[in-house]
């Protein structure tokens, strides 16, 4: 872990004492709740027990249009293609919508682009392949909001498109039948920070006309995708993941049971942290190192024998991923340590040849953690360069990359992560321009912080108190694991 500034916010002990009394809960747990801004019994009950999944799907702009078009396709037996993405969020989104449509009797296929040979999002070549199969309607999941030209191309081929996405929309929306995205300025959904699978969940709830049967049938997929995309576990996401983890622990899918077994957690209760560090990396490894279709098939199979074979193959890709990551990380550290000017830059732009693009985002996250600066790793292969970046809190990487969009052939992402493509000859200029943007926009760069919940004396540490932390589940982005400060301490052994 890199050096971080400890942030110790003031602690309202009186509010915590009152909350403990009003709710009849342990004072230590009350302190933890107050540090999360929860000071009244109603909010505490909702946080601990899980709130309702109450955001009306039809509050999303274009949801009514999307539902009408998909229902018409089902009833008229038009062929539908669910067009996904290769990461955990994209795969779970694809599996959820494809499975639902198939169960409703739709003529449906799914298409997930390969990371290495196709890359993210819609492409003309994939649209051509889909057209050959007689598809009349494409429904994108976890992508599509920036595919202006590609959706126009699909229209020229007689294919209509419904977009469901959660990435920040560009100023110009694609000319799709419907664009369902909570981040549209005209979208009235109460909650905004859904994963791609969360938006798909809302579409399916709207199609079904009910929420409860959808969460019971597909809640495990929603939890996996939301955790996999590191979305804030607050508001409705918290309720969705809490319900989904309960379903995940019931082992209803042979694929999940096989994956748990090969990850060594088949005999353990899955919480958010354990799921994030065991199941999610393996599902991602299929898309990073092999084919995302392996993960999709694993989640859809109802045969135990097939599930075990697919899980074993995915595990092999995961082991290979770890080896490749270690090699690239060593190269990146050598580049930084051998170039003081590069190390001193506000945004670390590090390039290499033939780095596996499936893992450079993971390594960028490690560099951010170590050096406390936004980082983009760029891999160049055959005169094409692809980058993946991660950021620190307070620095919008998407806005920074957008400011250099004239140098890029493709880009997308959000505040904390971004992906891009560019010509190799533009890398040096891109490095210069994004650092100029950072200097102008952020005269004083944000400093990584380690938020301390509150001070703790060593004599106060006991197993009983630590077990109370489980009441805060699900833990993750937006609701991190508690951190306690031991001040004026010397570690002797």
Describe this structure in words.
This protein is α/β, with parallel strands linked by helices and 493 residues long. 47% of the residues lie in helices and 14% in strands. It has 19 helices and 14 strands. The protein has helices at residues 13-23, 27-35, 41-49, 63-75, 88-103, 124-132, 148-156, 196-208, 212-228, 235-248, 254-263, 272-289, 292-300, 304-337, 340-344, 360-371, 397-402, 427-441, 463-467; strands at residues 5-7, 79-83, 107-111, 135-141, 160-164, 178-180, 348-353, 375-381, 384-390, 408-414, 417-422, 449-451, 454-455, 484-485. Strands 3-2-4-5-6 form a 5-stranded parallel β-sheet, sandwiched between helices. Helix 9 crosses helix 12. The longest helix is centred in the middle third of the chain and has 34 residues, at 304-337. It is globular, with a radius of gyration of 23 Å. The two termini are 20 Å apart. The mean pLDDT is 94.
What characterizes the major β-sheet? Answer: 5 strands, parallel
What is the multimeric organization of the chains shown? single chain
Euclidean distance between termini CA atoms? 20 Å
Which strand order do you get reading across the main beta sheet?
3-2-4-5-6
Number of strands: 14
Q: Which structural category do the helix and sheet elements fall into?
A: alpha/beta
- Spans with pLDDT under 50 lasting ≥5 residues? none
- Overall average pLDDT: 94
Shape: globular
**Rg over alpha carbons:** 23 Å
Helix coverage percent: 40-55%
Give the helix tally. Answer: 19
Tell me what portion of residues adopts beta-strand conformation.
Answer: 5-15%
